[in-house]
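Hi R.,

Here's the chain you asked about this morning:
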Amino acid sequence: MLGPFRGGRVAAVCGVPGRPDEFYFGHVNGGVWKTKDAGRTWFPIFDDQPVASIGALAVAPSAPDVIYAGTGESTLRDSTGFGNGVYKSTDAGRTWTHLGLDETQHIGKIAVDPRNSDVVFVAAIGHLYAANPDRGVFRSRDGGRTWQKVLYKDENVGAVEVVIDPTEPRVVYAGLWNTRRPPWFTYAPTNGPGGGIHKSTDGGSTWHQLTTGLPPAGIGRTGIAVAPSNPRRVYAVVDCLVPDPTAPAPPSPAAGRPAPPPPGQGGVFRSDDAGATWRRVSADQALWGRGWYFEKIAVDPKDAGLVYVPNVAVNRSRDGGQTWDVIRGSPGGDDYHQVWIAPQNPDVLIVASDQGAIITRNARTADPRAMTWSSWLNQPTAQIYHASVDYRFPYWVVGAQQDSGAVAVRSRGKFAQISQRDWEPIGAAGESGYATGDPLHPGVIYGGEGSRWDLETNLSVPNTAAPKGGGTEPDRGDWTQPLVLSAADLHALYYASQFLFKTTDGARTWIQISGDLTRPDPGIPPNLDRAAAESTDRNGKRGVIYAVAPSPLRAPLIWIGTDDGLIQVTTDDGASWRDVTPPAMTAWSRVTGIEASHFDEGIAYASVDRHQLQDFAPYIYRTRDQGRSWQLITAGLPEGVYVHVVKEDLLRRGLLFAGTERGAFVSFDDGDHWQPLQRNLPVTSVRDFVVYGNDLIVATHGRGFWVMDDISALRQVNDEVLKADAWLFRPADAINVVPGDDDGTPLQRDEPQAQNPPDGAFIDYYLRAPASGAVTLEILDATGKVLRTWPPPAEPSGDAGASPRGGRGTSGLPRVSPLWQPAPEVFSTAAGMHRVVWRPVAPVEPAAPAAGGGGPRRGGGTRLTGTFTARLTVNGRTSTRDFTVRPDPRSDAR
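And the predicted structure, written out as tokens:
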């Protein structure tokens, strides 16, 4: 893991009654996390489950070890993750059981009876792109073993909210919402007919709609809160865009600006008679605007007049909704999604936001400037769209982080670990664009529409321009538009709207090298309802170029794919184009990525996503004749999980990597067969790969950047290897990196951090079965001298004395805690693939214990370079491989 340690979007949070330091959050594509120290540190507790998108969390008030998790996020952007129902833990998150409701896909809320942990309600939004019956309010009376659908209007109307009266659990409130998205770009989903607030007084068996004082039509997403100190006081935040006939007309727009929409009927509503009648206490858009993304509300358990509404900021009213102040909100807007209040101590809140989860212990402080919060810079849950490399040494990884802006992260920390000191926000690419490293100018990247950014100075490079089409048709853009450098011509940079543009002078000038390459009329797919079919945004109902792939072998050869289902290719740098779309691809089949082969200019691979057509199957196509024919290559990929990216290794022909909505996969036979490449990578949405040198870099949309160090063994695996009893892989040439150190008091272990990659050469070996005899691995220098042996020789018995890094002093006590004592190195003789790392440093005589304080210092003997040999002996049979170690290039520069 690289990080960054800047949290991503959290839509669900919950504390634990009676445990003031224990909280949970559910990330929209990063799983469930827990803290036991009020947000000082967080750790994941859901990584062994097959889904990572979380829409709702609830701890049973009567059984604090019981947690319900609803999967499938409810903040329904066009990059939303989907779920597979409800999970339950009865041991505070250590283990989980799947409870069904698989086809709900998106869950907005879970409510647990305050007296009986087996009685639980689920508000299921349902499918986002098509009608389906698995939506509405579900109830279980046996802890989730069985479910009843107790509130259901039709196959288009789901439920987004459910709340139980904390004083009378037979009283339940629910919010219904009809929402859908079309496959073309729209910022917001729709509000279809059928939404509204409903109430049950018999534990959910029967319901009636509450209407008096609420908008009569057009209700979208709603949030509801019942005051525990006065349950007749009920609050609701309501999204309703139907124009308010009583509102004053909006002011006239400035010249050349579009007129603002008329004020809607949404707002914060209050009932003082348990929902029988309502009145709007605030129509301020700051409380209910962009309601599809927000609309949550919470009320203080001891003061019915103290209420919180999260939106772009966290808003608070202390007089029942009449007046409001802002208690949390940064310039530029953070976006907050849920507030949970501790029932015993309402000064304690946990808040969900686009930047992670935060906790305060002084929520009722009158002056918001005096409030304090835990950090959201300790949650490695960034949602990254694409990855690239900045070519400094050690290399950096760059990409756009949803909701927070683009980021650059060192692949190796400057000090003893990868920490907060090793990632930086960067100005290019925004929250969703491409960031592309410039190999001709290490330390400079391109981003967004082609702006250049100097990472050392944190300044934009002047005299760059954005590409614009020269005709009367405006340039169209999705949330993410491609910006790609050519590997065959490092001066050539391409950007796409519906047109393809090229620059060769560092984005100072651009030329348009295509006409509109999208479908002229992609049509309206049959899975849409009327509201979605009529919904439009800046692109109308038209598509864009969504993927660009210049050939790394021949610069004029360029592939493009569109979000409306076309693949086109040019062999003359855009002078002419040929439509090579596979016949099976229909309109609105989104081409999420194209990879032009590094070995044969006739070969290309395309990943295609059709889940917006309610087809979640994986699609990867391969052509070997420059698009004249295509083969579907998905054997081994899981059904029902769509694909975001396919990439090819730079050195081994036929070695491919695929990223799906729930994980990473590898093929060793050019895509004919796939198998998981998950290892310790968490289940999450895998959006991009970069093969750089011997490393495989992964961009995830929920857990930040990850790196698989040195994939040399993957490049060598074949049938001969797998049939052998033992195999020593040829080590890649290594760099003897001078490791960073903390040069004093080290960064403490409870600060957010990731491990640096190991220093030295990676030695990989394979055993087909557990070894029955001795297994040894040795490193020899060019003279045949053995420098290192695994397993290491047994140390002589007895106390060897003190060690500054964790040995025992003269008193017999260690000088450092177990946190700092290194784990013993394991040399495995079990069946499977194994790795050891040899640090090319000559051994030194042990030094006497240091008398002073401070942290560990750089140490070790002479740094070794040159040619070395790895020698593996298994059951008396020996194999050897030579490799080279080069010096750290920074050493040469000194």
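The longest strand covers residues 877-887.

Let me know if you need anything else.
M.
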